[in-house]
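Slide 14.
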Amino acid sequence: MTAPGWVVPELREPVRTIGGRTFDFDHRIAVMAIVNRTPDSFHDRGATFALDRAVEAAVRAAEQGADWVDIGGVKFAPGPELPAREELDRVLPVVTQLAQQSDVVISVDTFRPEVAEAAIAAGAGVVNDTTGLSDPRMAAVVADSDATVVITHSTAPPRQELPVPPHYEDIGRAVVDFLRERVDRALAAGIPESRIVVDPGHDLNKNTVHTLELTRRLPEVVALGYPVLAAVSNKDFVGESLGRPRGERLAGSLAVATVSAMLGARIVRMHDVVESVDAMRMVEATLGWRAPVEARHNT
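Slide 15: predicted structure.
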């Protein structure tokens, strides 16, 4: 029996083989670690831009218990255009070396079909598309592989300033309608339900008030029937909610990741691996999905 206040999603395909691992999302919350091979990432400010640093961070995340590692070469936020060749040069060596050293699930954070195709060939098992299949070629690339796709809600092209502040008549409905349409696009391209994950896109083309409401209404996204990814770590809505600058958002990030899990998210995308893994394993233990490592207290 699940405690009141918890949302246990009715998933179309709860047991998923992603990369080389199998997940039962009826009883598991996966932690996706983040490795940005970018000089201008919003959180780590280029700390893992050097190839050796990126590979080291990816391997360490796997050793620390991350279920999968998300590797990105271009941030979503506004910035100068980066040629596809340079994005490939950033992500492919990390994907290749991580695949050689670990069985952790590898995802590539990209909106370019050519980058996704090359990363899949190099060992990536997930394409994390923050534009929600805005390029129709992306769906074809995923359909022609065994990879899982993360379909994310966003309303504007990446790397560009929004022309006007974002506005939604109903943020929950807008996100659900968008994701439903993009899922239909994926299915029509030949991607099976068992290889689809959805992401409501915390902070992507949304202000803090939008993102907080969207988090409260996460069960509406969960009701689509696909595993929901909550990418909440260290984002501006956490900082603005608490008045915390970058570098001081860990507690807030863990809190909103836990709330997201309680409301039905089954994957959380996080920077701080050890703390995030502990938090999600504790959620699982509390729900009775995971036995304690030991149970000696008062015995």
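Speaker note: The chain is about 40% helix and 15% strand.
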